[in-house]
């Protein structure tokens, strides 16, 4: 704890905008955030994270929900939520929980993990208080992919000019974002950077997860992402169809005598657009195939079990 306090007093993150490189989340905190995001449905939710700093890592040990007003496109913390945060942290200190507030999380139902303009402003305000990060969870893609779709981000100071390849994208800049969100997605990508996300499990986490598994294992085995997330799958296919139609219109709009250099640049942009459409379609296919495979495995498993002779059967 003395080393952690020494690092806090030095404030190295104020000198280096890229100081923090990783967010390490406890299993229970991750479970709480994912369940909260899923409970919001198509509405965004918001919560607070507790933890501490260790070198260039932010360690998240717990998470709590915040009473906020959410819509399908944004979530805003009002005075009630701010008052709730202050009171909760005071009570936590009184009960011996010494971890500080270290970040906030919210959901992007169906449109990926990145920061919008409002998210960027919220994170900038929060970072003025100390080491802070923003986590985004996509509950719909979590169900489809079979793993938690999560991203962690920190914003840059206002006077900092970042290089290329910042923001919530992969190395090639690809992320499947709906057309309605595309403008907001690209408008602020240079104002923040992504952190690596890892997980850890304490002995207490192990006991809690075991208790949860003993209670919910039947529901886990009997559920199928094909049924649970069918609305999201339909939206994904409709969104893909709109992008294909847009690409076709752009291709048909070509014609007439044009500058060769301009034509080559336009063809390159069109090819890049088609490449991303193919990546998005391949992702949808892979998720649907994974769901079908899981259903088939469960069917074979339980059919084989039901075919076994019962204990009451006697051979005469």
Automatic annotation (TrEMBL):
SMART domains (UniProt xref): JAB_MPN
GO molecular function: metal ion binding; metallopeptidase activity
Entry cofactors: a divalent metal cation
GO terms (BP aspect): COP9 signalosome assembly; negative regulation of photomorphogenesis; positive regulation of G2/M transition of mitotic cell cycle; proteolysis; red, far-red light phototransduction
Region of interest called Disordered, as start-end residue ranges on this chain: 243-266
Superkingdom assignment: Eukaryota
Gene Ontology cellular-component terms listed: COP9 signalosome
Keyword annotations from UniProtKB, A to Z: Hydrolase, Metal-binding, Metalloprotease, Phytochrome signaling pathway, Protease, Signalosome, Zinc
Occurrences of domain MPN (ranges): 23-159
Cross-referenced Pfam families: CSN5_C, JAB
Family note: Belongs to the peptidase M67A family. CSN5 subfamily.
Protein name: MPN domain-containing protein
